[in-house]
Amino acid sequence: MKTITVFTIALMASFSSMAQVVRTSYQEVQSATDKIEAMEVAYLTQELSLTSAEAQKFWPIFNDIKEERNDLKIKKKKLMYDMAKSFNTMSVDQAQGFVDGMFDIEASLNESNFESRNRKIIKIIGPKRFLQLKKAEYEFRKKILREYRTRGR
User: Fold this and answer.
1) Structure pTM?
2) Is 16 within a domain?
3) Is 1 a member of any domain?
4) 133 and 125 in contact (C-beta within 8 Å)?
5) Most exposed residue of 27, 116, 127, 141, measured as fewest CB within 10 angstroms of its CB?
6) Do the domain assignments include residue 26?
7) How many domains does the chain have?
8) Would you state the pLDDT for residue 4?
9) Residues 12, 120: contact at Cβ < 8 Å?
10) Residue 91 structural domain
11) Residue 148, exposed/middle/buried by CB under 10 A (0-12, 13-18, 19+)?
12) For the ranges 12-16, 48-52, 109-113, 132-136, which has the lowest average pLDDT?
């Protein structure tokens, strides 16, 4: 009886420590994500030389676009996970549903440059600085990937 009690306590302690590891790794990922987002804001602000008036108008629109794109990417990952999980047992109709879902998400992602919102950004910062924004976003991604590769070695 003592053996079962000791075993149960040890098992519960190991589950508790595993949950702590998962929670800690999630917090680390979230912290790194927050840090990268802050770096991106600083980088784009510097590259675009936004005035405070421009920044007040620009960032809410920019953040809405970014948030919507992230939501679509999460939907796509969930759809792919669900598809992979049921791939071997799915019917043709279910497969067609997954295909339609993928096409819908892909179309939304392609439209997620959200022309109307980009036009609002262009009204705020002008077409040349809009192109500068696109270039700065690209350069920032390259910079982050380069740093990630360097640290990984």
Assistant:
1) 0.66
2) no
3) no
4) yes
5) 116
6) no
7) 1
8) 61
9) no
10) 35-152
11) exposed
12) 12-16
